[in-house]
């Protein structure tokens, strides 16, 4: 992938798996919408917790693919709390070369977006809107609430920085985009991969086992 533009977005630390859904949907939909050169119907989505509005393509294939990948990330974070996972969105061209009596598909990647996510809390430790349950509040709980608030402020800032980085890159970097050959809403084929950025052998083996136990999502072609 020597000619592939690689964009590393800010690493994000979230308090609850509910936030993972919101954050990942926001980032993946923003990238895909801004790289969709076909005819699309935009849809605004409000993230009330972060006071952020983003735009996504109204396309069932795109929505299904993102939801399937988000679910895989949630499975990983719930099974291995506190460990970091990397989500990569890659755009590519399809090339075909003759191999004996058949044609072999080759993928030439031209852009890759990476975001690392860590979930610090177990399921149920926070409320539905990301707030901690406040029954039997003690001084320790008050301190925890303050730390939680500071983490939310930091996450809000990092998410806004990530969106700004996406919009700046798609506006400034266009010379590497290949010719449009599809009439789909998202005109370029892409894939979304999940991996462990630390490359820890035990963690990678666990991720592979998890993926084989989960129904493989359909890729857009």
TrEMBL record:
Look up keyword Acetylation and say if it applies: no
Keywords of this protein's UniProt record, alphabetized?
Autophagy
Q: What is this protein called?
A: Autophagy-related protein 101
Taxonomic source organism: Chloropicon laureae
Q: Name one GO molecular function term.
A: protein kinase binding
Record family assignment: Belongs to the ATG101 family.
List, in alphabetical order, the GO biological process terms annotated in this UniProt record: autophagosome assembly
What cellular component GO annotations does this protein have? Atg1/ULK1 kinase complex; phagophore assembly site
Keyword rRNA-binding, does the record have it? no
